[in-house]
């Protein structure tokens, strides 16, 4: 009986300690001078929002929820706000992309699927041709076309502007392009730029990440290059084994380079035939180029984005 009583007291003490720790860990205020480290987190009063540190190697999901594709500020009330009141370069339920002498709003991609550092793609408003433009660094890879002709699914799915209401505003030297959503439509009213250059607007994916080389479908821009690149050259994903140790070369260990940067570099180099496209970090950071002979049709090899030509065979 005495042992049971001691056990009950011990369990109650542990329960109280756990509750106290949980309350402390679930605080919603960080006072001046206090620190927030990897062992702490801030939780909103209603428990719907949590601020915490996440390691760079985290997966695409967190607590069984889709996570890691975008970081956005969700506004809740815009009734008495003008478009000039919003200065954030993030598109949520009432945001803007624009151009002015002082500011140039844009959306930037992540460096990778799990690293939120600025990546190589950005989405901007072109004030001269009045269109949306996706660029890979300084190379235009996709445009929305005149009157958004290259976003047909957006028009079909949102015919009555229930989720998207596009507006263009002129204010002196400023030209601003924005979209609004009704309060009921805010669940889908956001524009998200993915790490691979694709853009998701609610349930609609703008066709940009398939733009690489010769394609001009859906708003893709044909890539300009040296004389060795002609109309018809394009990138294709292939499994190929290099035939000699001199068939590949590594560029630099620049951690900010993505496979899309590497494809751009390869396209400009007439000796380059392709870029390693595996996601296993086999060769470390930077670019790994295919510059020598290779063979196709073999199941055992490595994934490469190969530049194929219309006039020549891609087998060597």
List keywords for this structure.
3 domains, 316 residues, 19 strands, five-stranded antiparallel beta sheet, four-stranded antiparallel beta sheet, 3 helices, globular, alpha+beta
Could you give a quick summary of the protein structure above?
With about 325 residues, this protein is of the alpha+beta class.
Question: How are the secondary structure elements laid out?
Answer:
Elements lengths: L1 H24 L15 E3 L6 E3 L8 E2 L2 E2 L27 E6 L6 E5 L7 E9 L4 E6 L2 E5 L8 H6 L7 E7 L2 E7 L10 E3 L5 E3 L2 E3 L27 E7 L7 E3 L8 H9 L6 E3 L11 E3 L11 E7 L8
Antiparallel strand pairs: 1-2, 3-4, 5-11, 6-7, 7-8, 8-9, 10-11, 12-13, 13-14, 15-19, 16-18, 17-18, 17-19
User: What is the H/E order?
Assistant: HEEEEEEEEEHEEEEEEEHEEE
How would you sum up the major sheet?
5 strands, antiparallel
Task: List the strand order in the largest sheet.
Answer: 15-19-17-18-16
- Write down how many β-strands occur, each being a DSSP E stretch of 2 or more residues: 19
By secondary-structure content and strand pairing, the structural class works out as alpha+beta
> What does the overall shape look like?
globular
Taking the alpha carbons of the first and last residues, their distance comes to: 85 Å
Query: What share of the residues does DSSP label as strand, in percent?
Result: 25-35%
Q: What is the radius of gyration computed over CA atoms, rounded to a whole number of angstroms?
A: 25 Å
Percentage of residues assigned to helices: 10-25%
Q: State the domain count.
A: 3
Give the helix tally. Answer: 3
Q: List unreliable stretches of 5+ residues.
A: 17-25, 56-94, 312-316
Task: Report the mean per-residue pLDDT as an integer.
Answer: 68
